[in-house]
């Protein structure tokens, strides 16, 4: 009995008995031209059109994640994961109306507002994070902007300087800042500033009304002009459509320079907020967003942020394989639970990952051979006939 007779008819029609699987050229012809170009690119580009991003995003998921893994290995060490720890240095009482946020004073979530944490307390938390393997320490304060907060800014600068003295990267998210404030933070040693766009420009007014999309982009301009790395991403599961996720990715990938970090947050529904009864976004949509982000922003760190704790170990690894290469780890994600250091340590060891060092972007290892780009892959060996 020949081998071909034991195969389903569809398989025989697709591959035949001696022709083997589709060639690299055939595979490349089946994916969108924008994706085919991206897998062979040698540098990021900022000229993406929304139509091109949509082509990438809507590629069949198995082909998209294969391509994103190829891109990832061209620009990054696929085994290195940046470990970041986030601390809420000023909780609650924010005047904004972000419909997902537990810290808004407009929502009845039961969260008690606090004053800013003392500098020494924050530095102790950073030392603990470093001892547990984190190489970036991030700090968030719940307020709209830094206007009239000279003492707070002074304290934040002391925190930044102290953490940099530990040889750790340091990031803050303090709402809107002006150019002078950005420059002061830069001089204190700030590595990165987080200011998420959250979603597409079109869907944004459904989520927030107290701060415009252009105001968010203006803050990113101030950060970039001060020479600070930009950390900006989105939240998935706000009620947005695929078109909105494409819009967010297009905005980010067509900035004059891509953000150094793109956090992918999955909404954690908080009782008492307008979005408190929503369910988590389906995993395939989250994975598709991670993979598309990797393709259109190949040099950017793609970070699994809020909501990671709801993902299984296998789902997290699927995201790493698709191009995610940073996580938040530790005790808390501002007001929600976070995967712990010990848990992540076990997962990393099991799957062959290791923490990225501070101030280091590891170079790809065997980038051209580990997972070849679709357009450059060698044709697989033919399937031989057996009797």
TrEMBL record:
One of its GO terms (cellular component) is mitochondrion. It comes from Penicillium argentinense. It is an enzyme of class 2 (transferase). [4Fe-4S] cluster binds at residues 94, 98, 101. Binds 1 [2Fe-2S] cluster. The cluster is coordinated with 3 cysteines and 1 arginine. Binds 1 [4Fe-4S] cluster. The cluster is coordinated with 3 cysteines and an exchangeable S-adenosyl-L-methionine. Its EC number is 2.8.1.6. InterPro entries: Aldolase_TIM, BATS_dom, Biotin_synth/BioAB, Biotin_synthase, Elp3/MiaA/NifB-like_rSAM, rSAM, rSAM_sf. GO terms for biological process: biotin biosynthetic process. Belongs to the radical SAM superfamily. Biotin synthase family. Keywords: 2Fe-2S, 4Fe-4S, Biotin biosynthesis, Iron, Iron-sulfur, Metal-binding, Mitochondrion, S-adenosyl-L-methionine, Transferase, Transit peptide. [2Fe-2S] cluster binds at residues 138, 171, 231, 303. The keyword Membrane does not apply. This is biotin synthase. The keyword Metal-binding applies. Residues 79-308 form the Radical SAM core domain. Residues 369-387 have a biased composition (Low complexity). Pathway: Cofactor biosynthesis; biotin biosynthesis; biotin from 7,8-diaminononanoate: step 2/2.
